[in-house]
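Exercise (ungraded).
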Amino acid sequence: MVRTTKGMLGGIIARRPIAATGALGWLFTIDHKRIGILYGVTAFILFLVGGIEALLIRLQLSSANADLISPELYNQLFTMHGTTMIFMVIMPMSAAFFNFIVPLMIGARDVAFPRLNAFSYWTFLFGAILMNVSFLAGGAPAVGWFAYSPLTSIQFSIGSGVDFWILGLQVLGIASLAAGFNFIVTIVNMRAPGMSMMRLPIFIWMTLVVNFLIILAFPIITVALILLLFDRQFGTTFFEVTSGGDPLLWQHLFWAFGHPEVYILILPAMGIVSEVIPVFSKKPIFGYSTMVLAGILIGFMGWGVWSHHMFTVGLGPTANAAFSLTTMFIAVPTGIKIFNWLGTMWGGSISFTTPMLFAIGFIAMFTIGGMSGVMHAVAPSDFQQSDTYFIVAHIHYVLFGGALFGVFSGIYYWWPKITGKILNEMLGKISFWLFFIGMNLTFFPMHFVGLDGMPRRIYTYSEGMGWDLWNAVSTVGVFVISLGILVFIQNVLHTSRKGKQAGPDPWDGRTLEWSISSPPPEYNFVEIPNVEGRDAFWIQKYSEGLDGKPTRIVEETTPIKTHSDHHDIHLPSPSYYPVLVALGVTLIAVGLLSHLFFSVFGGVLAFVSVLGWALEPPTAPAEDGDHRAGAY
Amino acid sequence: MVRLPSLRICCIVSFLVVAVLLVACNPSSPQSTFDAAGPVAREQLRLFWIIFWAAMIVFALVMSIMIYSMIRFRRRSSDDIPKQVHGNTALEVVWTVAPIILLIGIGIITVRTLFALDQPPSSDPLRVEIWAHQWWFEAAYPDYSITTANEIYIPVNRDVSVKLMSNDVLHSFWVPKLAGKTDVVPGRVNQQWFRADEEGVFFGQCAEFCGTAHALMKLQVIAVPEPEFNLWLDQQRLPAIIPTDFASTGAAVFNTKGCIVCHSVGGPDSNEIRESRSQSFLAGQMVSHAPNLTHFGSRNVFAGAILKVNEENLKKWLKDPEDLKPGNRMSSLAGAFNDPILQLTNSDIDALAAYLLSLK
């Protein structure tokens, strides 16, 4: 592959170093690692935004009849908290890892469509900004992240909040769809020689499943959002009862998307944990094939359970029975995964590093979330639990104790690969325990108040309901979590200044990303590796005896091949167009919210940029010295 | 090797954990699902406990294996590399099949309970029609021509079948001690039934987010013995009291300041009245269907069951409803709170309060 980029093309790259420095370098980059970092940093900032929203919500609920924020603002805050955490934090955090890690793990130099990848990021960023601008433009949406019709109709939500929500989500959806196709093609087509499907690390498998879910689920929400937009802006009546529409149509469409979305959120974390646990147990993943199969099964079964979000809407006992059963049986592949993680730890040599603590915390917390999940699957029991704080507890055990713990496990695990420096373990462990204690303090009492009859999404409650104590405890818990986040930030700052160099393979890793230097060079692999089995890097380091006991093949870490003369490695050049197309697409949405001029301008910009995208040469023209910046 | 915590300590710890779990929930909460007062809520609670214990056992199993592994298999030296076990088919079959069997069991009782609770056992239940509005519950007794608001009287030990309807947005009807919730969906008629085995006031509130004042949309179900219920029925069916003295001044204020546009005082509301007011609202007019006040003075609570009916509360409410219940329709639509000409004076408020309280 390297040798094919010869002759003139090779010569051009040789004379033109890719703009790697400065803001412009980041703006036009199409390097999957840089895009991954952009995704991660942006998502973390939005995590803080969503976290502050949560903090305000908890302060308002800390005592009965609290008068801190108005009901209107409260309703905006919980709507934006949910929307932010789901679409602008957990999904892009996962995307950060897909971006940075997937090509490294499968032995590739980049994703299949690097420019599309950059487009995904910028579209995500602009979509997130658009959504949050609503706070300043007359009020954020106040209809819940699920935006049930008919509350979203023009009669009941007069301001532009809902329109911001619709268009923001559409823009974010475009980003997710583009990324989804990109990663599927990358995983299917860009694997290194020998990296057969059943040799892929579990994280890659989960990424593949997730991205199939994304490309199949997002079209549904796209359609639903278009129907809603038409109802609001052009007077159609898809959800309008008086004209023969049906508000339940929205619920079916939303959850037909929304339930697969739940797995879009959790499967990447499961993938991360499936990488972390083997490394820190020094054992391969237990039951690889079942793990893969269970992940695929969860992906499939996730499509047949959406109405368990609608047990109380009156679908009747037959439909409720059917969806109860399908939902319960998702517990089977999920259980398999949990037992296989335990099987991986069993008989291992477990070191309790921060990523491992988060991974173990994930198992425990996710199991609790799974258990309450089965409780909701039992429809008659759910009639009492639905729309109460019991559900709030459940989703936070799954999404905070599950997805987010998985993400933080990944952050601590891959930080040395991404930055070259290892995060401080002491601070890491402190932040883990603050997270762990804080999240249990916050969310466990919600089980109690939920069963004691506290509904969700209420901005106030009166004294004498018996909810005061546990709500106060929950609020204290949020401060403990906040402290954990501050310690994490401190850790990042400390590490960037004084952190110790990680070296290529600080954890004795098993997968290919640990076979190259940290941070990886722009071209990732000097030579595309030849994969000879699962745990592709481990088997280069260890040979397994007949008794299953591994021995190190070489005493010292193999010196990483550095390529002083990597000019013959073909890498695509940066491009102006991804960010311009993303801007154009976002402006189309902005125009629908303000003045149609912006839509027209955005449309023209997007169209012209797509043409430029299609017609620009694969690599930059030759340039010398001072003309670099203008010569992509 | 480090000594593992003894079995006894583990048992004590697990016992304590479960004890905390059980004590933490508070059956004395007015909306506690643990204090079932009727067969529907009781069956739902029974099912909850079955799954709760099943879940506790599974959770204890998973955590024991996990904690045991963490202690027993912690890394002791850095060059300690364990045997590379890749899997065990027999084990994996076990932990696939065992949950399936458990879930089949839970599935069977789930489906049976679902169908068993679907319809009331009695062929002659008390029929109540609930209209959920932004942000209050209206109750109509179609067999007795009664319309009331925020509180539902029922006789004990009789099945009650409620029809649930909405003209505006989604709501959810939920009285935890009597039954789980059922959503109220515009364009549909949903049904729920329950029965109270004991006398009492059972609290409920809207459980589906329905806009600004969602938190303040409550209701009470008041279960009384049959004779007392019949007395209530008789009293509610009386024609509206003709106001005298100061109350008649209030009646005049009621008409001239426009209260009458949305509130009825002359008997139950018909579906036509409800429908036409709702349509006017949807069409953007300053009208909305509002609680029927024919027998307002006989009620315990008002304003979405957040305020007790008494003179002080009523005056506060008439003075500044937005302060007590932000977002409510009256303060945004009623002429008395939006049109300077119709604004209520203090003496208007006194007279109105006297009038409304006289409507026994």
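Further reading is listed at the end of the chapter. For now, observe: Chain B touches chain A through 95 residues (CB under 8 Å). The mean pLDDT of chain B is 92.
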